[in-house]
Amino acid sequence: MVVKVYGPDYACPKRVILCLIEKEIDYETVDVDLLKGEHLSPQAMILKLCAESRAIIRYYAEKYRSQGSELLGKTIEERGLIEQWLDVEAHNFQPPLYDLVYQLLINPKTGVASDPKRIQEDEEKLAKTLDVYEKRLSVSKYLASDTFSLADLSHIPFSNYLVTTLKKGYLIRDRKNVSRWWDDISSRPSWKKVLELHPPVF
Amino acid sequence: MTIKVHGSVFSTATLRVRVCLNEKSLDYEFIHVDLRSGHHKQDSFLSLNPFGQIPAFQDGDLNLFESRAITRYIAHSYAGKGAPLVSSDAKKAAVEGVWAEVEAQRYEPPAAKLTWELGIKPILGMATDDDVVKAQETELEKVLDVYEPRLAHSKYLGGDAFSLADLHHLPTLKYLMASPVKAVFEARPHVAAWVAEIMARPSWQKVLAEC
Questions:
Q1: Closest approach of B99 to chain A, Cα-based (Å)
Q2: How far apart are CA B6 and CA B31, in angstroms?
Q3: SS3 B5
Q4: ipTM of the predicted assembly exceeds 0.85
Q5: How, if at all, do strands B56-59 and B62-65 pair?
Q6: Whole-angstrom Cα distance, residue B15 to residue B19?
Q7: Taking CB atoms and an 8 Å cutoff, what residues of chain A touch B91?
Q8: Is the C-alpha dihedral spanning A58, B141, A98, A87 positive or negative?
Q9: How far apart are CA B178 and CA B189, in angstroms?
Q10: Membrane-spanning regions, if any (chain A) (predicted)?
């Protein structure tokens, strides 16, 4: 039975697709239109598509350990660091960035007014997190270690918004090591393939 | 001692790591971090957790932060010791992983805010914000409305065995079940039974005795 991924237009499903491509796992996609989502609001739809994407990628990275790129490190200690930076992404990176996507890209499509105060707070939180990343990446090639892992992968789909439609690429470019890291991870063939097959819709 | 936990007695995230170590019957050194004097923002602590939050964890040379990453590490690294906290079957582990995400992403936000208002603020002599309590209680009930049917046909959240998905709830339950919010748990029979079961575990009782 082939893996089915719902809503490939959007960032969280792209997180899963990226992992599947890195692990050389076949998949099918089922289109979902966020703005015409069944009886649910766009907000509820996004949550539905995002639900537990990190649990899904952990499962595939573990189950298909023996094929494709190794995303979980070579030792238990390395795995511990990968889990740590995955949690940092979930708690400190995605929440403000997700709110920025909501405020600046989705609200206009649904005629909802954006909140400039919140946008400023989101940017400040994200900047603080990126300051920590800048320091970490000055001593480590990737977040957890010197090898690309699930922790770096998890950042790619949402970060893409920063350098495209959110027009906040300076958050990355103003930080030398974050910039170096972003150029590296976003040039992986797997991400280029995701952009080619499933171009973002906003 | 090879394992060290830096944190505070009241901190839910610190409790999460401590109960996990107890499940594995692991000894550790508990190093108190004085939050009121701002110890957690000083360079000596920032080298352990650059976000300046507790807990920070050391096992020999390995230094970790983020309580749920720490518990995952403990569960895998000490898989052969004490209670199994993660299934050795990939599919079962994945289901446990889903519910661990649910705890972290959906349960924790309202639970943490209620813990702050009803559990921690009184200890610090600060006033509870009743509007926040009311709003967050409503959010918590939405999550528990999903837990109830799940626990009607599954002994534990993640499946038929106790796992990290259940354990991660214990620290906030400590405060919530001692507050008026306990009513929302008690109103749902399967949730109530599950709460009683996991809070009765010896590893949790041991942490409470040490507080």
A1: 8
A2: 5
A3: strand
A4: no
A5: antiparallel
A6: 6
A7: 59
A8: negative
A9: 18
A10: none
